[in-house]
Here is the input.
Amino acid sequence: MAQIYENAYFTIAAASSPSASVSFLNTPREHPCSIALHQGPKDREPKLLSPTLRARRSDGYCSCDSHGPLTTRAWACQEAILSKRIVQYTSTEAKWQCIEGCVCESSSDNLPGKLSIRSESTFNPYNTWHSIVADYSSRNLTLASDKLPAISGVAYKIWQLVSSDYLAGLWKNNLAADLEWWCVHVPLSYGLSSYSSSLGREIVTPSWSWASICGKTVYRSIEPDNYTSYLVILGASCRLNSPTRFGEVDGGSLTLRASCCPALLRVEDPLERRTYQLVRPGNTSRFDPDLFFSPDCILSIRRHTVGALAGQGTLHRQVWDRNCSADDYVTLKDPRIPESAESFEGMVWCIFMSRAHHPRLYNPIRIPEYQVDSFMVVAESLSTPGAFERLGRLTVLKNHRAFLKSGESMVMHIV
Here is the structure.
């Protein structure tokens, strides 16, 4: 299907239609009305004017940003990117989009062109991929197993430019930066898995990939001169469950060396992002103002009942274990999670990923540079002994020496 959109002369996008059975041309966009206009003495009969008004967006300007049901569908993301030209029918007007520019009925302005994948020397494929991931991950999928296949056509175009191994939505040649994603979805959603009929079991995407969760994921803008990665990547691979390298995967592994700091993760309500608090071991307070933890999804705890670990618990992602609709993800219809979940806490490791320096212009505190340290937060894996799984991302907004001093260089195996 990707080649069909890529090779089409132009694509017609029914942006306002909720389904293929609903027409996108029968919505009236012109509304006749009558206006009484008084001219001359007040006792004279008003003159009636009968203009025709055209409905338009209330923002008052033409925008190439799409609106409507079509823009919420994950499969439509790569269809729009791969298409050379698009005639888009929205609920208020028609728009023309191409690489050169964008115009709409309500304005004569010629706006910048649509997002596309180009081969010019000034084009940064990795930054473009990060932007695509942010848009794509915010859209809805009917099947969890389509998470990677639905963007595979765009991944193939990026691969033609970078010639890098593709690892479940990340690029091996840019892996340190590609691991810097975090979830901004509200409310918190779930980790993803899907059932493979050919294998007869559940399969999961590696936890270090943005494709392993349901919800919008974003990357921060990285300036090479102000960014330093502290990860040493020792190995990374994925097991394919698809005839193409850009399709569904059945797990994967990431081995790296980095400074790792122990911490305690406290959760008051698993459904509320703001109640996830990460503190240093030995810190008796309930909140550490220098540590900002963002969970990838709803987290839970599995308590051990036998053996040496009896009474202790292992933190893990709450995973939706069957294909289901995006509506179920968003509205939290999983019967296994009660409306009022109990609080819990558990030990985690914080893997020091990178440090970024920002100019004083953007500095909220009076120091020469505004420093941001980023960590990947992991816990022991329930499925793979000796390995770890990602739970979220930690941001430290200043030089937290006490926290960094608690770290030690370790080799971590993440699945």
In short: Helices lie at 2-7, 75-82, 125-137, 152-162, 175-178, 326-331, 401-405. Residues 125-414 form one domain.
